[in-house]
Amino acid sequence: MHGELSLLKQGKALMFTKPKVYLAGAISGLTYDEAVNWREYAAQVLAPDIVAYSPLRQKHFLADVGVLDGSYAQNSLSTDRGIMTRDHWDCRTSDVILVNFLGSSKVSIGTCMEIAWAFAYNKPLVMVMEEKGNIHDHPMVREAIGYKVDTLGKGLAIVKAILLPETTGYEWPSN
Questions:
Q1: What's the mean pLDDT in 102-115?
Q2: How far is residue 64's CA from residue 29's CA, in Å, rounded to a whole number?
Q3: DSSP SS3 for 134
Q4: Up-side HSE of residue 148: CA atoms within 13 Å toward CB?
Q5: 140-165 tens-digit pLDDT
Q6: Distance, CA of 145 to CA of 45 (rounded, Å)
């Protein structure tokens, strides 16, 4: 499967593939920068051992839109079909799904679909969400969560603990 630490035979050469994490979370109702900032941080923390996939990769053209809402027909990646196709593929081919719902003020329907896909495909789901009061706190969402933490640092630590062999010199974050 894509992203697993495994040996792939390609002719005479063997190649290691890196584990893949999908970075799910709200996009609608946020600016491009607000939506990508935590994802860029997560990708930096997880690199170089884990590859992080953002639903906003290769969508820099959205930076000037202002507050994002829905789809955008000017690029195939941002149409209704383009969003659904790639985000579904990313969830299906990822080894772990990391969901960041911290500070959500509006329900993220797309992310709720990604949570359902993670559950359907038996993908470990790491949820970063306030202990109480988050708008996404719902019985079905709670049941789909494999791991729930209240800070992004703790969520990233769990992603590493799931995907990597024993790490030395890494301490559990206090925040």
A1: 95
A2: 14
A3: coil
A4: 15
A5: 999 999 999 999 999 999 999 999 98
A6: 22
Residue range 90-98: average pLDDT? 98
Q: Does domain 16-163 have CATH number 2.60.40.1220?
A: no
**Angle, to 10 degrees, between the axis of helix 152-163 and the axis of helix 32-46?**
40
Q: Classify strands 20-25 and 51-53 as parallel, antiparallel or unpaired.
A: parallel
11 against 85, higher pLDDT? 85
Residues 54-58, mean pLDDT to the nearest whole number: 97
Q: 138 in helix, strand or coil? A: coil
pLDDT of residue 6: 46
100: nearest Cα among 149, 33, 51: 149
Q: Tokens in use for 96? A: 């772990």
Residue 86 CA to residue 83 CA, distance in Å, equals 6
Place of tokens 């772990």: 96
Cα distances from 71 to residues 27, 28, 39, 102, in angstroms, run: 11, 9, 20, 23
Of 163, 158, 131, 164, the residue nearest 146 (C-alpha):
158
pLDDT at residue 4 is higher than 60: no
Measured CA to CA, the distance from residue 116 to residue 122 in angstroms comes to: 10
Residue 95 has pLDDT above 60, yes or no: yes
> Cβ(81)–Cβ(7) under 8 Å?
no
